[in-house]
Amino acid sequence: MSIRNLHHALDPTSLAIIGASDRDGSLGRVVIENVIRAGFEGEIWPINPKHDQVAGHRCYRRVADVPGVPDLAVIVTPPQTVPALIHDLGIRGTRAAVIITAGISADQDLRQAMLDAAKPFLLRIIGPNTVGLIVPSAKLNASFAHLQAQPGGIALLSQSGAIATSLIDWAADNDVGFSKVVSLGDMADADAGDFLDLLAGDPETHAIVMYLEAISNPRKFLSAARAAARVKPIVAIKAGRHAEAAKAAATHTGALSGADRVVDAALRRAGILRIEGLGELFDATETIARFPPLEHSRVAIVTNGGGAGVLAVDRLIDFGCALADLSPETVGTLDRNLPANWSRANPVDIIGDAPPHRYKTAVETIVRDVGVDILIVMNCPTGLASPVDAAHAIASLAQSGTISGKPVLTCWLGGRTAREGRTLLQQAGLANYDTPSDVALAASYLAKWSKAQQALVRVPEGRDDEVHCNRDLGRSVLQRVAAEGRRMLNEPEAKAVLAAYGIPVPQTIIATSPKEAEAIAGLLLAGAPKLVVKLISKSITHKSDVGGVVLDILSPVAAREAAEAIVARLKAHDPIAVVDGFAVQPMIERKHAWELLLGVTRDPIFGPVVLFGSGGVSVEVVADTAVALPPLDAVLAGDLIDETRVGKLLAGFRNEPAADRAAICKALTALSQLIVDFPCVLSMDINPLVASAEGVIALDGRIEINPRAVTRPGPNRDLAIRPYPSEWQKQVTLAERRYHLRPIRPADAALYPDFLAKTSPADIRFRFLSSRKRFQDQMLVRLTQIDYEREMAFVALDSETGELVGISRLYADPDHEVAEYGLLIRTDLQGHGLGWALLAYLREYASADGLKRIEGLILGDNAKMLKLCREFGFSISTHPGDATLRIATLALQSQASVS
Asked: 597 forms bridges with which residues in the sheet?
């Protein structure tokens, strides 16, 4: 597992400090003084051949000399000494080390020697080049931070030591505490993904904040983040937002995707709230930690000052929040209870003399409106009413930060007069903010996080049944291009692939000469009023840049002349460019239509990315686009559309009818499916995709491939998020009862309570190696939100009732050689062969995934499972460290790797 042995670092009972020193100003002295000052209660063993005693503790010359096995080692010695020290620690039995030493990663040979020394012992390394590790609950400060971190429920992961110490300093001044502070350093071994995995199950951690500079293993990071974000709020700052984007390759999409936009899309898909500044980090965390994610995020405002309400609205719109439209019923009730001059709209201005009962009535009325999801309550000090009395009225309605179950954010403006009211609101559990901008920003946090949480639970399938595609036809086109050694498909080839995936394209006929273009035009004009002639050339990527597109052709002669003119313009632009032919097609003209851009490109970190936005020849100038990570389904495709300005226009306005949104979503999911199916596709443009109420049609297409990768099978291993493995499902019949076996889904968490209720306490003890009276919602989420990369779980569902009746599970180690398995069958259905069927399916999957063996821990008194394993071919041995446990091991014959 990726978290293997990291627990030794977070809750050690003994600590070796290699390089500890009494020398003033030395790093070794700061570290050991921090350890002692924090009150660490375990053994402390300084190691330094130059000292006999350090900080009142006996100092040892070598690792081999310490009287016990250090759970955790902290290393502050010169870089060249580190590999040997890691080897010595491994032999001694240490399984985790914090390497504060800098300069190791600058020497790749030294860095690799360090990792090679750790690997045989599965010794985990935090760092190098790290400030260190702080665990307040364990009284552990193995760092050179200048302050002790206070205990609390927030875990901090930071790739910058300077940012970590700055946040500790800020937190000390604002009464914020930490469960863990991990300075990740150079992340030679343990990285942010590992610690996200660990913190997801940490009962002391209620929220996670991160400062990121690089994501080196995106698939691992996203799988860990997606699992952790299901159970705990995660807020992240990712530095480098304005690093120069990669230059465009062969497509518009490459020019418009932008590295930071891809990071933003990745974090959003992982359910993480991304913010921009350090000052927002803990405010954002506190805000979203108060509330569950919302299905919608429409905001209503109650205020006794119209100006304050307008300021809040301005900022809400700036932050992309939606204002709630009050229902006629709500307006009617407010009419009967508010002064005649109230605003009669959102914001609800209840007038400056508003007494407490008016506040109370307005709030109670508005939270009952089904169109309101978030309520902001504001107060401006006046000489006509008391801010404290207004706060009392609102506080009396509050329960756990909500009123009638809806999140309430408050803003009592002012200084001295507002202070007592703010205190009352905070004591009632209501979040309070100083200014309209602050409260609007908080509402935007909740809205953005809720949207990210919705994306998090989407698990599009590797084979989307909604996309009607002819994969064989698409493959044949790509193989033909690859056989010619080409990377770029010409327009007709690209359109053939798009058409194979259900994206409408106009009829296109290829002419090899201007004269042939004239003849083809004569045929097409019999059914079309106008034609288009386009250049086909392997030498040219963007035809419009060289005048390679001619519109509004009305006659065969005009078609020939257009082709001749294209040749002349091309030769003037590039005398050695080759004309491969001309595409002649009907000119598509639709009223009230929009030109859109759909594309796929490759991000150097996150792999394939889907782009959507405004299209046409001015696409780079307009730059109205958004990006998302595939795979997409219809919901995620709709979210992508909604992120653009043109997405709002597509919904229709004034006399403009709405475009066919379903058809646009279908085109996006088709592109997503294409990149899932064909790893050889490097980039792709559809520009323009014309969209109207009549549907969509792709007028131009461009696809770039890696010819050497055409034979690679799908699903695409380069995707940062692995699609739902829909190919791994089947029906089985056992004892005249039919079952559906398939990979687990996040929604299956709803099936667990009934399943567990029908499973005996003894069977639950056998499966989880301990007795459990109840399973918390967080645990059920963790069991069902998996990444299908390191972990796989198959559920057995009763085909008639849909009930969950059995589960088998695999979790692979970091080297993807060995996986731990688990199996649980509903008690009343045991003995009918279902356990055997699930275990056999698990073995089949593990072999296809390239695993070498599967292992399981079994309680010695679990006779049924031990019998099943022996009959299945497992070897059984007694656990060397626990005589009550047995280890079941099954060697596998690897097959073709699972994608």
From this structure: 613
Q: Out of 3.40.605.10, 3.40.50.261, 3.30.300.30, 2.60.320.10, which CATH number does the structure's domain 292-456 have?
A: 3.40.50.261
Q: Among 516, 494, 512, which residue's Cα sits nearest to residue 503? A: 494
The one-character DSSP state at 788 is S
pLDDT at 839: 94
Q: How far apart are CA 675 and CA 670, in angstroms?
A: 9
Identify the burial level of 564 via C-beta atoms within 10 angstroms of its C-beta, where 0-12 means exposed, 13-18 middle and 19 or more buried: middle
The residues that bridge with 704 in the sheet, in sequence order, are 488, 683
The domain ranges of the chain are 292-456, 730-891
Q: Model-level pTM?
A: 0.84
Interval 199-237: pLDDT, tens? 988 899 999 999 998 887 888 898 889 888 988 999 999
The gap from C-alpha 575 to its chain's centroid, in whole angstroms, comes to 48
Asked if 28 and 59 count as a contact pair (C-beta separation under 8 A), the reply is no
3-state SS, one letter per residue, for 128-146? CCCCEEEEHHHCEEEECCC
* Separation between Cα atoms, residue 224 and residue 197, nearest integer Å: 5
pLDDT digits (tens, 9 = 90+) for 342-356: 999 999 999 988 999
Residue 70's SS3 state is coil
pLDDT digits (tens, 9 = 90+) for 524-540: 888 888 899 989 887 77
Answer for the pair 884, 866: CB distance below 8 angstroms, yes or no.
Answer: no
- Give yes or no for a contact between 172 and 147, defined as CB atoms under 8 angstroms apart: yes
How many CB atoms lie under 10 A from the CB of residue 324?
21
From the centroid of its chain, how far is CA 391? 39
Q: Which CATH superfamily is domain 730-891 in?
A: Gcn5-related N-acetyltransferase (GNAT) (3.40.630.30)
Rounded Cα–Cα distance for residues 823 and 126 (Å): 34
> Which positions ≥6 away from 378 have C-beta within 8 Å?
301, 302, 303, 304, 305, 308, 309, 312, 410, 411, 412, 413, 436, 439
Q: Give φ, ψ of 181 to 5 degrees.
A: -130, 115
- The pLDDT value recorded for residue 898 is 55
Token couple for 430: 């209501």
Q: What are the pLDDT digits (tens) for 707-754?
A: 999 999 888 889 998 888 888 999 999 998 999 999 999 889 899 999
User: What average pLDDT does the segment 267-284 reach?
Assistant: 89
Q: What pLDDT is recorded for position 46?
A: 97
Inter-residue contact 897 to 713 (CB < 8 Å): no
90: tokens are: 């491994």
Angle value at C-alpha 738, between 733 and 740, nearest 5 degrees: 100
Task: Say what the pLDDT of residue 462 is.
Answer: 61
